[in-house]
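Students often ask why we bother predicting the structure of a whole assembly rather than each chain alone. The short answer is interfaces. A chain on its own may look different once its partners are present, and contacts between molecules only exist in the joint model. In this exercise we take two input lines together and write out one structure for the complete complex. Read the inputs first and try to guess which parts will touch.
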Amino acid sequence: MREQHIVTTYDEDLDKIKSDLFKMALIVEKQIYDSINLIKILDIKKAKEIIKSDDKIDKKEKEIRNLATNILTKRQPLADDLRKILIALKISGTIERIADHAANIAGRMSYVNNIPDSYLTDSIFHLGSLVLANYAKAISSYDKDSSKIAKVVPNLDREINSIYETCFREHLHIMMEDRETIGFCTQMLFIAKELERIGDLSKVISKEVLYNVEGVLK
Amino acid sequence: MQKNKIEAKKVSVFYNDKKALNEITLSIPEKKVTSLIGPSGCGKSTFLRCINRMNDTIEGCSMTGRILIDNKDINEKSLDPVLLRARVGMVFQKPNPFPKSIFENVAYGPKIHGLTQSSDELNELVEESLKKAGLFSEIKDRIHEPGTSLSGGQQQRLCIARAISISPEIILMDEPCSALDPIATAKIEELIDELAHNFTIVIVTHSMQQAARVSKQTAFFHMGNLIEVGKTDSIFSNPSEKKTQDYITGKIG
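Now the answer. The structure tokens for the assembled complex follow.
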């Protein structure tokens, strides 16, 4: 059984900040998923939806910040309770930035009218799938307070960085071989960079989880 | 290197047959603030009172183990407890000024210990002590009024002035702010910061935040045992012991 505070509303406050943050994380997971799918299936309407839903995430982040401020004021938490609030603040800010990157991907894809015939690679989509999987791991480590899952995230991020480099070189070759693809590939390279940043930020989340579980900043 | 002013070695205290403290071994660094925290009845105040042998005055109370101040055992028969208490001042939970004037409250200690040669010297010492306690500017025009006419926070600072007037080396504080409002508490905490430059301070407090604010070292007591001692920053951010964690975060466990 989980340990409880003597003051039960304290537990309710901590549960609420965690569940609100996890819900926010799930919305952003869907945004990343949708924005990556735009690479395969052009859909201007969907792209605009993703961009618009970014405002909702900004609002959620503010709500979590207010909740955290309220808990700090009311409870003056210490030790693991304090870390829970500190990481909720950091992770909510990080997820808000991840949502910005997802919106940026949607923004890039809304400029694309058609995919050139000679563009046959799906390496960026593959990169996106890995980034999405790693983000899901990071938020799962938060949900389960699992240092074991959190420790996997930086390893996968190294793989993501390596694939990002490969994508970059590959797209240079595609552009050199067919000048018609330059416009499209440029957008794709920007998107690859956005994905690579989401990878880095997922690592930030996993580090915060480790700090919460182990009590030491690494 | 950090010098330890007080060393407790396997200190146990009994109230008749009941063991109140169980083999406490604890070093208290010189000119630093050490907080003792723990639930009511855990033995922290009992331990505090061992340091100036206040427990000697309680019938049925006995102690085993050793307490050293500057490497000298304070329980040696040759040592006069009155002289020990001149070196180890104490401030209590409830301000307890003597029913005398503000001046007399502070002058009393120096007078009985013969610390001054003339009335000018005594006046100077009283003023100096009141200044160190951060009280002089507030009461300088009514120094001959009763100490009990002051507010609770001022009375507590008067008691601190009284304690430091005889130049002790150690000041023990037993929940010095528990009867005070937040402003008076802030003034006492500011004073503790100042005093720590010249005195070794041991404070018992029920406020975790106060312990975190004022002390460099914190010791957690539970049911007569010393559970954990360490740097205050570590104790309140990442304690090693589960019992400490449960206590400072208010968990049932």
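Check your guess against this: The mean pLDDT of chain A is 95.
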